[in-house]
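The freezer alarm interrupted the setup, so I double-checked each line after restarting. Inputs confirmed:
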Amino acid sequence: MSIILETKDVHLSYGKKEALHGVNLDFEDNSITALIGPSGCGKSTFLRCLNRMNDLIPNTTITGSFQFHEREIYASTIDLVELRKQIGMVFQQPNPFPFSVYENVTYGLKLTGHSDRKFLDEQVERALKQAAVWDEVKDNLNKSAMSFSGGQQQRICIARLLAVQPDIILLDEPTSALDPISSAQIETTLLELKKEYCIIIVTHNLQQASRIADRTAFMLNGNLVEYDNTSKMFTNPEKQDTSDYLNGKFG
Amino acid sequence: MNNIFTTELKKLFSVFTEMGEAVSAQIEQATESYISHDKAAAQSLVQQDNSINTNEVDLEKQALTLMTLQQPVADDFRHVITILKASSDLERIGDHATGIALETIRVKGSQRNKDVETDIAALTVMIRTMLKEALAALQSFDMQSAQAVANQDQDVDAKFDQIRRDITAAIQVDPSVAEAGASYLMVTKLLERIGDRIVNLAEEMVYNQTGEIVELNQGRLHPNG
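Predicted 3D structure, all chains:
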């Protein structure tokens, strides 16, 4: 398993308040890594650093190293559109654009200059199939993406991201707004997608982390407490804090 | 529950079934080696038991991983618990069969009693039939079969009592059979214990299906009956 993204000594401050106190994490290709921890521990903040989503927040200072394909994500030469094409993100609330399913999935492709109808058709089908939502939307590609169920909308958002063929998929609590059946469908989709992508997921659902993640990172108060194979972490964690959190004793 | 759990549970059941077949063969071969006084065959059986013990440990590890990572509830939870408990019973049945093989190696004296040995062979057939039906009931979730298996244990207990009386009578008639008689008693008792373990399998099947913890062992319900 090869490391696709490596972060070292990541510090992030909002003004004078430091939210991440030196996090070191590396991520393997073709695997799912879960970031867990109580609210405010910094896991979403850290996730958003990985495709520079924190850049727009005023007074934010980020230091440390983020090596992706042997390039520094925060280098001044990095093209943000290109970066976010390679490292895409799915959010807690499904956020399809108020367009048709077809226009949602082709949005990123059109942005990068693709206009050939046949190519776009092929990519729409591929992406929707990979996101395991093709069968449910294929007869309604021109219908508004907003008209589908929450679970379907979330998978359309995953397809929108897959259309531009990213390397890494970031997911910030992607199922917390969904019912158990839709959540299970997303989990099954992610288990399929990990064969081709590196997936990093922030989740409050510990069962979800244990079910699907190959590795799990536990964060607390802006620090990385423990990072290990999920089976080891959930069976015999090294740190008492990890055990206490997994057992619901705090957080 | 998700596909990973279903796939892993199927694998567990499949390993469990193989373990059951191996243990059944172990009982047959152990008794055969005992009756035919084949110490070499018994020796090889004792070595084979290690692989059954290893299987049981592997099965246990896999079941525990499944419990920890997939955190099953309701019927999925019962399936994993059933395999955990049943594999432990199978492992102990394997140990009892090994006990018979060890007795084959240990026993001395050439003075034997053909009738008792024939009865031990008959008891072995009863035990193996019970085991086969218990394993089938576990696979098919057949509640009636589970009760039928438990009922057969009463026949096993009756056969055990009869053999015990015959051994005592044979020793009274010809004291030179005493050494073999003690060994016969040991082996017959091991077979009877295997019967009790098979009743456990039937009880586990009921738990698997209904979540009820039941006592199907009539001997335990009525120790003097």
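Quick read of the result. Chain B touches chain A through ten residues (CB under 8 Å).
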